[in-house]
Amino acid sequence: MRVLLPFLALYRRHWFRISLGILLAFITLLASISLLTLSGWFLAASALAGLAGILTFNYMLPAGGVRGAAIIRTAARYAERVVSHDATFRVLSHLRVFTFRKILPLSPAGIAKFRQAELLNRLVADVDTLDHLYLRVISPLISALAIIAVITFGLSWFDPYLAMTLGGIMLALLLLLPILFYRAGKPIGRGLTALRSQYRTQLTTWLQGHAELVVFGALNRFRSDLNQIEHHWLQRQKQQANLGALSQALMVLATGLTLTLILWLAAGGIGTYSQPGALIALFVFAALAAFEALGPVAGAFQHLGHVIASAERVANLIAQKPEVTFTQHDLVKPAQVAIEIDNISFTYPEQPQPVLRNINLRITQGEHIALLGRTGCGKSTLLQLLTRAWDVQQGEIRFNSTPIADYSETSLRSMMSVVSQRVHIFSSTLRDNLLLASPTASDEHLAHALKCVGLDSLLINDGLNMWMGDGGRQLSGGEQRRLGLARALLHTAPVILLDEPTEGLDAETEQHILALIREHCRDKTLVLITHRLSGLEHLDRICILDGGELLEEGNHATLLANEGRYYQFHQRAKALETV
Ligand code: ATP
Ligand code: MG
Q1: How remote is the CA of residue 422 from the centroid of ligand 1, in Å?
Q2: Which atom of ligand 1 is the closest one to the Cα of 378?
Q3: Alpha carbon of 373 to ligand 1 centroid (Å)
Q4: Which residues pair with 416 in a beta bridge?
Q5: Alpha-carbon separation of residue 31 from 27, 73, 194, 290, 508 (angstroms)
Q6: Is 349's C-beta closer than 6 angstroms to any atom of ligand 1?
Q7: What is the pLDDT along the chain (579 residues), one digit of tens a residue?
Q8: Strands 394-399 and 339-346, how do they pair?
Q9: Closest ligand 1 atom to the C-alpha of 373?
């Protein structure tokens, strides 16, 4: 329950609308009770007057009252729905933006813990479920309490004993039913929240991985898992519906029993009237109408387990601390950047072994270096550390002698163009995918960048309006890479970080791309990760990483002369060529 407190605190921001909603709900219930009570009494009194032959019975006033109560009930119900839903949507929109703001800084490190569908589910469905809290729990509970007080007070004018009996029964039900149905509904609610999330995650995975599942013939197995989750989910929904029906049945039973009791007690006399006549109808109908206020309470608490489970999941997401926090202090973008990597070590969270150990590297302004090493030796990690996707645990990285932690996120991003190992293509137009790197670039500019990387063929049919499909599926691996490179060309920055930009390209295209990179980076600082040995002779320095340490560094000629690891790479490549 405590998990709900921060969410309840959010309601304070809209206290006026919320209080007004509760007041209107109360007025609606009151009008409803007045309508039934008054009309019940009126019909009974008219019948009795007719039987007794009384000709002076004033029927105008009660008839007016009945009509008035009916009109107030309709108007108040309408206003209550408008006001309370408006308040709930305001709280939800605040909560959604608040949750999204919390998710953003987690990117990319902290977010990797959650699967995409899981994140979306928390942001959309779980936040949505929280609207039950006010609409189905708080508002009905408060209105019911107020109604019990008013009914007991109102009826005690006629007979305090009868009024207290009715009020006591209703209060006992109000205290008992929520506890009972909360307990019964809790496991069902938790199950519903978990299964909904599982189902959506599995469904998204199924849709996203459809091609792979078909290739490996795993479609049916995956589908049957999905069906099973759906089956469990439906079962839970059925259980909840059954519980809902049970709560309603119990309410009907409680109403019937209470009415019989009140009828029996009232028949024995009301207050000072030993022959109460139409007043019996007043009491009976008042009791009948008052139970309308209790109706939603049992149902509400049955949903509370669902609400609490969702609240826990949203709270868990909100509580995530970003791995990296940026200062707000923007620094002027320098024309050139020297990078100093000073004795850094880095271990991924929850991993036993460090990926990088005591790395020292000085890259001067405008220098071009290549990072080489076996797969998994930490090259991409080093690049990510330069972009502050993670923070180092030991040592420091400085740009122009300023620690990178002193740059705001905007300053840091404006200083570098990055092509990461996996280029993400957005499901949008070619133009949008490029504008990402340079929002103000003209179409000519974008087309020129594409031409530079040899992708002008993409422009043939729809030009820049070409639709890229989900994750750029209709592009080849090499095309995706070159699109990433085109983005990097468009984003003018003094540091260029490229993670295997020529992977998957044929030798001719590779030469062309490498020449383009050299030309583009003429007075920029370049860090190029590669597994390919071609073109490295043009770079200023080559650094070999191994087992998380910097093994060798020097230019192509020196390293070859040293006959170390770089030399071995060359020998092996030559041997493979001759095979
Ligand atoms: P490749 O040449 O195959 O791209 P790499 O040198 O770029 O390899 P990295 O991607 O830096 O290698 O990974 C270095 C090591 O860190 C690997 O063992 C990898 O499994 C591990 N690793 C990478 N990313 C993470 C992560 N987010 N969490 C935990 N471990 C990670
Ligand atoms: Mg890599």
Answers
A1: 13
A2: 11
A3: 12
A4: 495
A5: 6, 5, 41, 11, 84
A6: no
A7: 788 888 888 778 888 998 999 999 999 989 999 998 888 888 888 888 877 777 676 778 888 999 999 999 999 999 999 998 898 889 889 888 888 888 888 866 667 667 777 788 888 888 888 888 888 888 888 989 999 999 999 999 999 999 999 999 999 999 888 888 888 888 998 899 899 889 988 998 888 888 889 999 888 999 999 999 999 999 999 999 999 899 889 889 999 999 999 999 998 888 777 777 788 888 888 888 888 888 888 777 777 888 888 899 888 888 888 888 899 888 888 899 999 999 999 999 888 999 999 999 999 999 999 999 999 999 999 999 999 999 999 999 999 999 999 999 999 999 999 999 889 899 899 999 999 999 999 999 999 999 999 998 888 888 899 998 776 668 888 899 999 999 999 998 999 999 999 888 888 889 999 999 999 999 999 999 998 888 899 999 999 999 899 999 999 999 999 989 999 988 888 888 776
A8: antiparallel
A9: 6
CATH code for the structural domain at 422-492? 3.40.50.300
Ligand nearest the Cα of residue 384 is 1
Domain 85-318 has CATH 3.40.50.150: no
Ligand 1: nearest atom to the Cα of 384: 11
Domain 85-318 and domain 422-492 have a common topology = no
Phi then psi dihedrals of residue 295, to 5 deg: -45, -55
Q: Is the CB of 351 under 6 A from ligand 1?
A: yes
Binding site membership of 375 for ligand 1 (Cβ less than 6 Å)? yes
- Number of the ligand closest to the Cα of 372: 1
Which fold is adopted by the domain 336-415+494-579?
A: Rossmann fold (3.40.50)
Cβ of 348 below 6 Å from ligand 1: yes
The Å distance, Cα 435 to ligand 2 centre, comes to 26
Structure token digits, residue 506: 């044929």
Q: Where are the domains of the chain?
A: 85-318, 336-415+494-579, 422-492
Among 282, 40, 45, 293, smallest CA distance to 162 is for 282
Residues 144-182, buried b or exposed e (16+ Cβ, 10 A)? bbbbbebbbebbbebbeebbebbbebbbebbeebbebbb
User: pTM of the predicted model, to two decimals?
Assistant: 0.75
Distance from C-alpha of 193 to C-alpha of 308, rounded to nearest angstrom: 9
